[in-house]
Each structure stands twice: as structure tokens, then as C-alpha cells.
Amino acid sequence: MRLAFSTLGVPGAPLDDVLRMATRTGFHGVELRAHPEEPVHPGLGRRERAEVAERFADAGIELLCVAGYPRMAASGDDAPVLAEVRALLELAHDLGAPYARVFPGGDTGPEEADVIAVRRLTQAAGTAEELGVRVLLETHDSHRTGADAARVLGAVDRPGVGALWDVLHTWRGGEEPQRSCELLAPHLGYVQVKDVPSRQDTTPLPPGEGVLPLAEVAEVVTRSADARTPAYGQWTGVEWLCWEYEKRWYPEVREMGALLPGVRAHLLELLADAA
């Protein structure tokens, strides 16, 4: 299993700095926050995209995902959301990333939000499959549990669409890691790990300093490694754990760069104990 970190923890950092952090601390990949305030975003031109891909290749670091903000279950017209998703998928394709992250963002009742999300993700699946990229619906906001996400993803049932399991949100939704993994396994791209002081206080902490059941998460994802999806014959075993440290939203917390060696050591210890 390989380890990545999200650039949400180093807001606005130049790409070369991010890649140096990864190589110096032994992380294998990076999840790039794809937002206009960041160096890499869907507004980049072809030459800039080629340069980004070349920098990752030269550093020997994998670009795991471009994490965007389309809201697949939000009310309103489909066209602007689908255009945003297409732009994100094209960016992922051009950079060589296998995944593009989207949010649910439902703002209606659950049934209507499900219908909207299924319709949009089904349409986005064609673009994703054409480009060889997978669009991942994160367990977040209106669909924060594995059960919520699985309702939508099971109805879409396309190989170009999957799940990103954010363990904080499923846990805050009252779902045990074992249950989350069972529900998401047929769709799972990778897992985001993090830690917080309590259910009420979501100030980010390095893994192991808070209350999230990360040892149990490591155990269930390790046990899933031999499973296959019945629909597509793909591995459902998790290949990546990605540390997301939300310094962008909590600027007062410690600098991520100084924490990376200890975080890597802790995650590797959890995986070794689970093996």
C-alpha cells in the first residue's frame, strides 16, 4: 500500500516545493487540490499541463488525484456542473492522474439529491471512461456515509465512477469503518485519512494524535486486498492511503512539512500491525 498527501495541507505552495516534500519524506504520491488559488487548476494551458506532468515524472512521484469542487447533487441546471466535471477530468487526463474528486453537495431532500447525483454522474461516466480517468464521489456533506454514497454509486454502476472514502465523514455520520468499507468496496478508489480531537472539534491533527479509529481503518482496508468487484473484475483492495490535513481551513495549525516524517512512520506502523 502506498502513501500520499493532499496539498490542502500546504495551501498555495509551489509545485516544486510540494514534490521536494514528497521525495524527502518518502511519500509515493500527491493529491493536488485543483482550485484557482492553487498553482494547478483547470485553467492551465496545454504547455503548463505538460510541464506539471514532466515535473512529477522527474521527481518519481505519482499524481494520485486532482481534487475539484463540482457538486453532483446540488440543485440547479446540470450543464454548468457537467462542464466543471469535464474540465476537471480533462485536467486529470492531461496530467496523468487516474482520479478526479467531486463532492455530493446536495441541498434538497435525500431522494431528490440522489436522483440529481445519479443523473449527473451517469453522464460524467462517459467522459471519464473516454479519457481513461475515474471520477470519485467523496463521502462528504449531504452524502457523508458509505451508505449514502453507495446508494448513488450502485445506481450509476459504471466503471468510470467510484468512491473516495473520507474516513472522518463516515465516522462522524455514525458508521463503523468495517461497514463503510463493505459498502464502498465495490466502488472504492482510495482512502483519505486524517485525525481530529473530537466529533465536535474537527481541528486537524496528525494521525494518531486524535480520536479517529485509524487502526481499525487500516485493518479493514488491509483485509479487503483480496476482494474483487463482481461487475468489473477489478481489485477493490485499497492501494493508496492519502493524508488530508486541512490547513487551508485552519491556518493556525502546525506546518504540514514538519509533520510528514512522523505521519508516514505512524501510517506505516498501522499498516504493519494490520498485516
TrEMBL record:
Residues 21-223 form the Xylose isomerase-like TIM barrel domain. InterPro entries: IolE/XylAMocC-like (IPR050312), Xyl_isomerase-like_sf (IPR036237), Xyl_isomerase-like_TIM-brl (IPR013022). It holds the Pfam family AP_endonuc_2. One of its GO terms (molecular function) is isomerase activity. Keywords: Isomerase. The keyword Metal-binding does not apply. PANTHER family: HYDROXYPYRUVATE ISOMERASE, XYLOSE ISOMERASE-LIKE TIM BARREL DOMAIN-CONTAINING PROTEIN. This is Sugar phosphate isomerase/epimerase. It comes from Streptomyces tubbatahanensis.
